[in-house]
Amino acid sequence: MIIIGAIVFMIGTLILLVLLGPVGLIIVSGCWIGLLLKLYAQNKRIHEDLQKIKAQLGIEDPDDAANFNMSDEAIEEVLLTEMDDAEEEQPRERTEADKEIEKELLVFLEQNEKEGQNPGKA
What one-character DSSP code corresponds to residue 45? Predict the structure, then answer.
């Protein structure tokens, strides 16, 4: 529906420009300004309604500047928690499979060096 309305408006604009000449340009400019002001007012009203709905439901916007007013202690606590979580995710020591793979890789590299191949370059 919006696309059809836009197409009709453009066709009407062209007809006014062709039929009325310079006066048509003034009329079309006025129509465009009116359309832009109407869209701005609608956008503003919708934004205000969304803010009311968010306030009613208790939804906070994560981009609000108020969320970034944290004390140094709170920031430090968050960072320490994230560091502890990261340490728990990483394995403490290498497994036997890792050690075997590393030995195989070293043997492979030694064999390639003896044969005169350079595995690092294609």
Answer: H
Are the C-beta atoms of 61 and 54 separated by less than 8 Å?
yes
Sequence-distant (6+) residues with CB within 8 A of 30 are: none
Of the CA atoms within 13 Å of residue 88, those in its CB half-sphere come to 6
Tell me the one-letter amino acid at 72: D
**Mean pLDDT across the chain, nearest whole number?**
80
Alpha helix ranges (H) inside 68-117: 72-89, 96-115
Per-residue pLDDT band for 122 (boundaries 50, 70, 90) equals very low
Cβ contacts of 9 within 8 Å, gap of 6 or more = 31, 35
CB 35 within 8 A of CB 27: no
